[in-house]
Amino acid sequence: MYRVEHDPDVLAQLDALPVEALPFYLELCAALETAPWGLPSASATNPDEPLRSAAFGDHKRGLAFFLILEDQRRVAVIKILWVG
Q1: Taking the mean position of all CA atoms in its chain, how far away is CA 16?
Q2: What would the pLDDT profile of 40-76 be if each residue is shown by its tens digit?
Q3: Alpha-carbon torsion, ordered 76, 41, 31, 71, to 10 deg
Q4: Do residues 65 and 55 touch, judged by C-beta distance below 8 A?
Q5: d(C-alpha 75, C-alpha 81), whole Å
Q6: pTM higher than 0.90 for the full model?
Q7: What is the DSSP string of the chain?
Q8: What pLDDT is recorded for position 3?
Q9: How many angstroms separate the first and last alpha carbons of the chain?
Q10: Those residues with Cβ within 8 angstroms of residue 69's Cβ, 6 or more apart along the chain or in another chain
Q11: Considering only CA atoms, which of 72, 61, 52 is closest in space to residue 24?
Q12: In whole angstroms, what is the distance from residue 60 CA to residue 84 CA?
């Protein structure tokens, strides 16, 4: 298991999400806790890098960027975007 962490800026981004996006984001967090390496790399040229991204929500309108800190078994969410 990995610990998922949100800094204050990301918490503000979460607060700005529409209510209907929250269950989708919680689903993503469950994936981050169990298998973050299974989500796509944020870089097309370096698929093994720890900076990753994942789309979430209805019609994939959300996008989260996160950094996997393997030695600490920690995932730091660094940005959340929502279209709409």
Answers
A1: 15
A2: 999 999 999 999 999 999 899 999 999 999 999 999 9
A3: -50
A4: no
A5: 17
A6: yes
A7: --EEEE-HHHHHHHHTS-GGGHHHHHHHHHHHHH-GGGSPBS-SS-TTSSEEEEEESGGG-EEEEEEEEGGGTEEEEEEEEE--
A8: 98
A9: 33
A10: 50, 75, 76
A11: 61
A12: 11
